[in-house]
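Figure S7 source data.
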Amino acid sequence: MAKKDGSVHRIWYDEPTLWASEQDSRVDKECKFLDKLFKKYKVKKILDVGCGAGSHCIKLKNLGYFPVGVDLNKKLIQYAKKKSPEIDFSVADQKNLGFNKEFDAVYTLCTVIAYAITNEDLVKTLKNHYRALKKNGLLIIDTFNPIIFIDKAEYEHERKNKENALGLYAIRKYSVDENKQLSIDEATFYNAKTNKKVSSDKSVKRMTFPQEMRFFLEQTGFSVLDFYGDFDFKHKKLDSHRMIVIAQKKKF
Ligand SMILES: C[S@@+](CC[C@H](N)C(=O)[O-])C[C@H]1O[C@@H](n2cnc3c(N)ncnc32)[C@H](O)[C@@H]1O
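Tokens for the predicted S-adenosylmethionine complex:
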């Protein structure tokens, strides 16, 4: 659910150490993939849209890139700035970024783009990515692969998460709004000692099918280079929960 400032209310994002530990568990593999791709396309200056706690920016800076990170959540940006003051981190909405032809690549990982839940917001977001990129710039989108969720109908379920660093556990209830193509994740947090409810949140994200994503990208000035099912260049078949799209700003 959206907060007053438009950012997403999720316990994980409002407790940056929780999100940082989630992000850190993926960062090596994901940055290895990006590094390989960036070397191939001679990328140097990069924009991380929805950078969260900043882990990818920090890792990629250490690999020699020049990252800029934006996220709509103020707490996550404060946390990232404190962790790495030399990186330019700021609060911004993916629908209104304000960059103009500055980056060799834009990447947006772990379903950030799925927060653009309407067609209008998705187009606005992609147009902002387009504007931020230099000529022939690369766009890397990592989001849900809805085929898996819908085909196997495995997304409609409830599960209990492990206790986190705050001594809470979450019961997660997942459902799908088929008409609007939305994935709904409702989390209720309980104190692990007392089992008393502490808080709850709800996240609603857009699922975009591969050909639909291709259509939106082509309509906003990109050509699609590749789809992958994981961050290892081997998963050409979209048979996992992830859909990673590599697109390039078209030459006009
Ligand atoms: C699932 S997290 C992913 C964070 C990071 N990319 C990663 O790989 O860990 C989603 C992030 O998107 C951010 N976000 C949600 N809506 C956004 C928007 N409209 N503009 C920018 N960031 C947004 C959230 O604040 C959160 O940090």
